[in-house]
Design goal:
about 230 residues; 5 strands; alpha/beta
């Protein structure tokens, strides 16, 4: 196993993480995909992640079980309703209730542990700081801080094999991300982005994630290939 070419990719089953996986593959990395079942109300994304990992023929795909539902703190892990809006313009600047406390820190920590075991010095995460809901753990300064911590806290880094946290979508719009993915042959029909999908997986079309996704496809002049619930 090569420490140069192996990478752990965080894969949620969504548009961003799937594009990130495609980028890691294009850059020549042997991909190990990691998905989390963390008590999220949109747990259907795990099945999408399984299909995506299989389609990309990753070296290994693990689904990690952790229970963030025990303390809630988010509409995605508790009983609060997922906010719905009519347009992207209604997305405010405040951090919304769909923020899951410390989620990316938890996810990256698990990815770091696996990467160290694999002797893989690269971790990919599909965070974005432009077309997003304002989550603090999606910003460039957060990624830099986590990388610095990883290289202080691990045996591998201390002994001369430091880690790089790749966030290739960090400064792209959703439209740019879709363009990049399509150029890499990503089938976005395999992905899901909705925070509050129906029982059969149809997207709500009105949560922040759906609205940003729909605008990205609209700006590219193409129709989003996934199924949405009928508008009321």
């Amino acid at each position: 196993m090569s420490s140069v070419t192996s990478a752990v990719v965080l894969l949620s089953g969504g548009l961003d993480s799937t594009t990130t996986l495609a980028i890691a593959r294009q850059e020549g990395f042997i991909v190990y995909a990691m998905t989390f079942r963390y008590g999220q109300r949109h747990e259907i994304e795990i099945e999408f992640a399984r299909r995506i990992a299989k389609s990309f023929e990753v070296a290994d795909h693990v689904v990690v079980d952790i229970d963030l539902q025990r303390w809630g703190g988010s509409a995605l892990t508790g009983n609060a309703a997922v906010p719905k809006k009519n347009s992207v313009e209604e997305i405010g600047e405040e951090i919304p209730i769909t923020y899951v406390p410390a989620r990316n820190t938890i996810f990256l920590s698990f990815a770091l542990a696996w990467a160290e075991v694999l002797a893989a010095q690269h971790i990919f995460i599909g965070v974005n700081a432009l077309d997003y809901s304002g989550y603090p753990d999606c910003r460039p300064e957060y990624i830099r801080a986590f990388q610095a911590m990883a290289n202080k806290a691990t045996k591998a880094a201390v002994e001369g094999a430091p880690f790089t946290i790749h966030a290739p979508l960090i400064d792209l719009t959703k439209s740019d991300i879709i363009q990049r993915g399509m150029a890499l042959g990503v089938d976005y029909a395999m992905t899901t982005s909705c925070y509050d999908p129906g029982t059969k997986g149809a997207a709500c079309g009105r949560c922040d994630a759906c609205l940003l996704r729909l605008r990205g496809f609209h700006e590219n002049g193409i129709q989003d290939p996934i199924v949405y619930q009928p508008t009321r």
